[in-house]
Every structure is written in structure tokens, then in C-alpha cells.
Design brief:
307 residues; alpha+beta; Ribosomal Protein S5, domain 2; Butyryl-CoA Dehydrogenase, subunit A, domain 3; 3 domains; two-stranded antiparallel ribbon; 8 helices; 6 strands; 60% helix; disordered N terminus
């Protein structure tokens, strides 16, 4: 492999901000990890796991950061199923007695026969307390890490697959934009010449309508013609469009965190295209500008999904 090919292969891929992954790890116990993300302007991470495993949250966040996620709203959920016989539950007699006392008063007030059955109080908050089995947090993390890593692999693969699809679509739209740019560049000189001629004819008509018989100052006419030419010449806008096309392609090739830069360049495409439309008084150019705006809008929709 050549040096350039090896360098290219090391470039990070373009990734979508949306993704999903799910994996399970078991060793008598069972841990299920789910990772999902949606679009977001900034990076936001939300971790959900049982309170007794709260100490694992920092490790999970570190693992996500090592993955290199830069933007998007990410939810990480871990579900634990204990297959052992350890642990259990016990009644909180004080809470149960308090509930029974209150229930007795209410039953007496409402004249309920037989009072309130004990079974009706069992599901009230705090009556039944869970007794967690003593666990080695390192063993719990080892199993959790295995499940989470599997989910993250799926999550990343989905983001890369969608990112590659979006990049291909962006390139397709850029290719069509480039065709329009070439076509406009072909007709622009003729359109400019026609615009200047119409400008001179308007001057002649205004002078004729005003019955001005004095000789024309050619220097003044030429100066005004140059100003009119500047107002209708789109060559600079076409050159900047070409530069933006190249910058967008370079950004896609470099990969990684591309969304913000591509979004900025897309705004520049809109700006240059709008300027061309406002400058060029030619139906052939106007038609292409309208089509270009539709293509740029498609690019914008894709870019806003990229990390």
C-alpha cells in the first residue's frame, strides 16, 4: 500500500448523529445494554441504570468519550437481571403499621365492614424493602462493560453506515450543482453582453425622450457601463462556488466531525447562488438558480444529520 493510500485509510469516517445498538452479556446474571442517539447541536449524554450501580456512571461516560462522539443527544440504558438466589426482600414493619393505623381510621370514618385488608397495603411505598445481595462492583462492571461494548459497536456501525450514505448523497447533489455552475459559466458572458447592450439602449432612449441634442460624453457612458457590468457580472460568484465545492469534498474525505463545517459551507452555497440569481437578468440562468437552490436544500437536510 502506498503512503497516500495508507494515510487515506486512517481518516475517520463521516458519521450520522443518529444510531442504535443493543447487546446482552451473561455469566449467571444478565446485563442488557442499549445505546441510542438523535440529532443535537451539542453533545449531551444521559445514563440510566439502577441506583445501586450508580458508581458505574462515570466509567460509562468515560467509555462513551473514548468512542469519540462529538455531537448528538445520547441515551445509555443498562438493565440488570440477577439469576442468583442471593438477596431478597423484607417487610418494613414500622411503615406497614403506620399505613394500617391510617387505613383503620379511614375505614372507621367511612364505616367499612371488616376494615382494610393487610394485602391491600403491601404494594404501598416503603412497605417491602429489597435486600440487595452483596456484589463485587468490579465483576458487575466487567459484565456491564462487555454488554455496553457490544451495543456501542452496533451503534457506531449504524452511524458510520448512515454517514457514508449521507456523504454519497451530498456528493451526488454537489455533482449536479457543478453541472449547473458550468452551464451558467457558459452562458454568463453572452448574458452580460446582452445586459450591457440593454443598458446602453436605455440611456439612448432616455436621452431621446428628453430631447437632449448635446453630444454624449463617451467617458461618462463608459464609466456607467463599467458600473453596470460589475452589477451583473457573476464570474466571482461562480469562482467562489467552485471553491466551496472543493472545500466540501475535502471535509468529507477528512471525515470525523464534519457537520458544523459542512453546514457553514452550505450557507455559503446559498449565498453565492442567491447573488447569481439577483445579478443575472437572464431566463436561462434564473432557471438553473432555482434548481440549484433545491439541490442545496437537500444538502442542508443531510448535513444537519451529520456529527
Amino acid at each position: 500500500m502506498s503512503l497516500s493510500a495508507a494515510s487515506k485509510s486512517k481518516q475517520p469516517p463521516v458519521r450520522s448523529m443518529t444510531g442504535y445498538g443493543r447487546a446482552v452479556a451473561e455469566d449467571g446474571r444478565k446485563v442488557t445494554a442499549e445505546v441510542r442517539s438523535v440529532n443535537g447541536r451539542f453533545f449531551k449524554l444521559n445514563v440510566k441504570l439502577p441506583g445501586r450501580y450508580g458508581t458505574l456512571e462515570d466509567r460509562i461516560k468515560t467509555l462513551i468519550n473514548e468512542l469519540g462522539v462529538k455531537r448528538g443527544s445520547i441515551d445509555v440504558n443498562l438493565f440488570f437481571e440477577d439469576g442468583s438466589e442471593e438477596g431478597g426482600s423484607e417487610l418494613n414493619e414500622r411503615a406497614l403499621a403506620a399505613y394500617a393505623k391510617q387505613a383503620g381510621k379511614i375505614a372507621k370514618k367511612l364505616k367499612l365492614k371488616g376494615g382494610v385488608p393487610l394485602a391491600a397495603l403491601m404494594n404501598l411505598p416503603g412497605v417491602v424493602k429489597r435486600i440487595d445481595a452483596k456484589e463485587d462492583i468490579e465483576q458487575v462492571w466487567e459484565l456491564s462493560h462487555k454488554a455496553l461494548q457490544g451495543a456501542l459497536d452496533q451503534f457506531n456501525q449504524m452511524r458510520e453506515k448512515e454517514g457514508a450514505s449521507m456523504a454519497a448523497d451530498i456528493r451526488a447533489q454537489l455533482a449536479k450543482l457543478a453541472e449547473h455552475r458550468v452551464a451558467i459559466g457558459t452562458v454568463a458572458p453572452e448574458a452580460l453582453k446582452s445586459s450591457v447592450q440593454r443598458f446602453k439602449e436605455r440611456i439612448q432612449k432616455l436621452l431621446a425622450d428628453s430631447n437632449v441634442n448635446a453630444p454624449l460624453n463617451n467617458d461618462v457612458i463608459e464609466r456607467e457601463t463599467v458600473l453596470a457590468t460589475d452589477r451583473t457580472d457573476v464570474s466571482e460568484e461562480l469562482a467562489r462556488l467552485e471553491s466551496h465545492f472543493q472545500q466540501m469534498e475535502t471535509t468529507i474525505v477528512e471525515g470525523g466531525e464534519t457537520g458544523k463545517k459542512l453546514d457553514f459551507l452550505t450557507q455559503e452555497l446559498f449565498r453565492e447562488t442567491n447573488t447569481i440569481g439577483s445579478k443575472a437578468n437572464d431566463d436561462r440562468i434564473t432557471y438553473r438558480v432555482v434548481d440549484m437552490k433545491g439541490l442545496i436544500e437537500k444538502i442542508r437536510e443531510q448535513v444537519q444529520n451529520l456529527e
